[in-house]
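Working notes for the structural subgroup meeting. M.R. asked for a predicted model of this chain before we commit to crystallization trials. I am recording the input and output together here so anyone reviewing the notebook later can reproduce the run.

Input as submitted:
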Amino acid sequence: MSGLELIDAGLLPALMVALVAGLLSFLSPCVLPIVPPYLAYMGGVSVQQMQGRSGRGPVVLAAAFFVLGLSTVFLILGVAASALGRALLAWQDWFVTIAGLVIMVFGAHFVGVFRLGFLDREARVEAGDHGGSAFGAYVLGLAFAFGWTPCLGPILGAILSMAATEADMARGAVLLAGYAVGLGIPFLLVAAFFPALSGPMAWMKRHMNRIERISGLLLWTVGLMMATGQFAAFSFWLLETFPILATLG
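Returned structure, recorded in C-alpha cell form:
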C-alpha cells in the first residue's frame, strides 16, 4: 500500500466531516435565524415576496453569488492552511496531534463543558448597502466568510486544522470546498423552496441547543480520532473495505 493511496483514502472521511461541518455551521444559532431576511435583502425583495414564485427568482440568483463569495474565501483559507502544514511537514505527527487537541477543545466549547470567551464575541464585517444585485451578494458572501463569528469560527477552525494536516494545497482546497458546499447548499435550497422549508426551519430554531451540542460532539470525536491516530486507521479500513479507492488520484 503506497503513501499516495493512504492519503487518497484518508481524504474521504475528512471530506465527509467537512460537509457535515458546513451543514452544522448553517444550523448554528446566529446563522439559521437570519437566513430568510438575509436572502430577501440580497435579492432586493421582502420576506413575504419570497413566498411567491416571482419573488424567489432574484433571491436564488443572489444566493448563488453569495455562496460563490463565501466559497472564494474558504478556498483561499484552505490553500493557506495547507501551505502552513507543508512548511511544518517535518513535525507532521506532532502537528496532527496538536490539531486534534485543538478540535477537541472547540467541541467541548459547543457541548457546554466550558465556554471560551473569545469564541462568544461576535465580529461581523460590514459590506455596506449591496442588496438587490449579484455583485452585492458576492461581496456579502466575502464579508460573511471573513467576519461571521463565533457562528463559523470554531467549526471552520476545526476544518482548517484538518486542512493543515493534509500539507497539500490542492487537497486543502478540496477539503474547504466540501465545507463550502455543506454551508452553501442549504442557502440555495432555502432560496429556491422557502415556503416548503419554513416549517422545518422553525423546528430547527426550537431545537438550536441540541443542534449545537451535536456539533460539539462531532468535533470532539473527530479531534479525538486525529489525536490518537484513529483517523488514519479509519482511512486504512476504508481502503481495505473498498479497494476501488486505491485507484483514486
